[in-house]
Specification:
Helix content is 41%, strand content 25%. It is α/β, with parallel strands linked by helices and 206 residues long. The protein has a 7-stranded mixed beta sheet with strand order 3-2-1-4-5-7-6, with helices on both faces. Helix 7 links the parallel strand 4 and strand 5 (140-150). The protein is globular.
């Protein structure tokens, strides 16, 4: 039973794969509100260089590329990376986008490569969130912005429905703030909209 649940959790959310994973993430309607909130908070500009961690099928990347000069994304699922590449094929061919399969704990880009970063509905799956935040901070420029959506550490209806079967890792606000500051961010703010927790942070100046 546990093996079946873990496999279902991976295929449908933690590491989407196969025909079902592709079907769910080629147009993840349930994540559209998270995408909207992230773009609203990031307030992208044409000269921004954008990074997305855990990009899934590449829908949010596609939306960001309508504004930014350059975008890159990473996902640990080979099927999701392929789906994101297919969706953003034109931008990849122009050289304005890059999609890679890889680990968020070891991002394959040099220091200070991006002016902003995003992560939609994936933070609660990271085994070592401090490492992920440190890596994002490393590749952000000084004053670079980070916005990510997750679930609150407080008990909620959403938590009751999804936290146990999907083994979501949630954190009290104080813990999240400490992780962000320890990773090199100087500002950390949170807003909760329609049950979605939106964290906004800014990397400290050098």
């Amino acid at each position: 039973m546990k093996t079946m649940l873990r496999k279902f959790r991976d295929i449908t959310a933690r590491k989407p794969s196969g025909w079902l994973g592709k079907r769910l993430y080629e147009d993840p309607k349930a994540h559209r509100e998270s995408f909207r909130l992230i773009l609203e908070k990031l307030d992208l500009k044409s000269d921004d260089s954008y990074l997305e961690v855990a990009c899934g099928g590449g829908v949010l990347l596609e939306m960001a590329l309508r504004t930014v000069s350059r975008g890159a994304a990473i996902d640990h699922s080979a099927d999701m990376a392929a789906l994101a590449m297919e969706r953003n094929k034109a931008a990849l061919e122009r050289g304005t986008a890059e999609v890679v399969e890889g680990n968020a704990e070891s991002l394959p880009w040099p220091d200070e490569s991006f002016s902003c970063a995003a992560c939609a509905s994936a933070f609660f799956f990271f085994e070592h969130p401090e490492l992920v935040l440190s890596e994002i901070s490393r590749v952000l420029e000084p004053n670079g912005r980070l916005v990510f959506t997750t679930c609150s550490g407080k008990t909620s209806l959403i938590g009751l429905l999804f936290k146990w079967p999907y083994n979501l890792k949630t954190y009290p606000d104080e813990k999240m703030e400490r992780m962000l500051y320890s990773a090199g961010f100087s500002v950390a703010e949170v807003d909760t909209v329609s049950g979605i927790q939106v964290w906004m942070a800014q990397k400290a100046e050098s």
